[in-house]
Amino acid sequence: MTEKPGTRDRKHVRDVARFDFEDDEVFRIAVEVAVLGDEIAEGVRADRPWAARQIGRSSLSVATNVGEAQGEHSPGDKARFYRYARRSATEAGATAAVLGERGWINPEQEARIRQVLVSVTGALTRRIIYFEGLARARKRGWLERKY
Q1: Helix axis angle, 49-71 relative to 25-44, nearest 10°?
Q2: Contact at 8 Å (CB) between 120 and 63?
Q3: H-only helix segments in the chain
Q4: pLDDT score of 1 more than 60
Q5: Terminal CA-to-CA distance of the chain, rounded, Å?
Q6: Measured at the alpha carbon of residue 89, what is the angle toward residues 31 and 27, in degrees to the nearest 5?
Q7: What is the structure's pLDDT at 2?
């Protein structure tokens, strides 16, 4: 019997090598968004391939942009990637709303992805505000650079 991708225990993979972002709660929520978006895409792929691509891309982009933000050093760059992630989250939310309105996904799927998207959007907004403030403070010379 062949295992479906994503169903096996990945703990051993994470124990071998870890990225810093893997310990981040916002990244974990963003991964949940990507998984839910992919599940929705699988369900609508045959009838509506363009809608499947849209929800798949935007939901995956949330996680990848959070990861990229974690890899940046400067506060301004971190804020920029968190803004990209938030934009992707709102795009995925809008796409899920349209799919739900058209009846292309069931109400439970729509409710679940919306719940997770609202959660990650709030967390991303808080990070954007923090890092934009930090970048402004550094630019004005109010904080000493530590790099």
Answers
A1: 170
A2: no
A3: 11-16, 25-44, 49-71, 75-102, 107-139
A4: no
A5: 52
A6: 30
A7: 45
> Which has the closest alpha carbon to 96: 63, 56, 55, 57?
55
For the record, the structure tokens of 63 come out as 């996680």
The one-letter amino acid at 94: A
pTM: 0.85
CATH number of 20-139: 1.20.1440.60
Alpha carbon distance 56, 103 (integer Å):
18
Question: Vertex 87, ends 85 and 126: CA angle to 5°?
Answer: 65
Whether residue 146 is predicted with pLDDT greater than 70 in this model: the reply is no
Distances (CA, A) of 39 to 25, 32, 33, 59, 87: 21, 11, 10, 11, 21
* Encoded tokens for 31: 């991964």
Looking up tokens 């990244």, which residue turns up?
A: 27
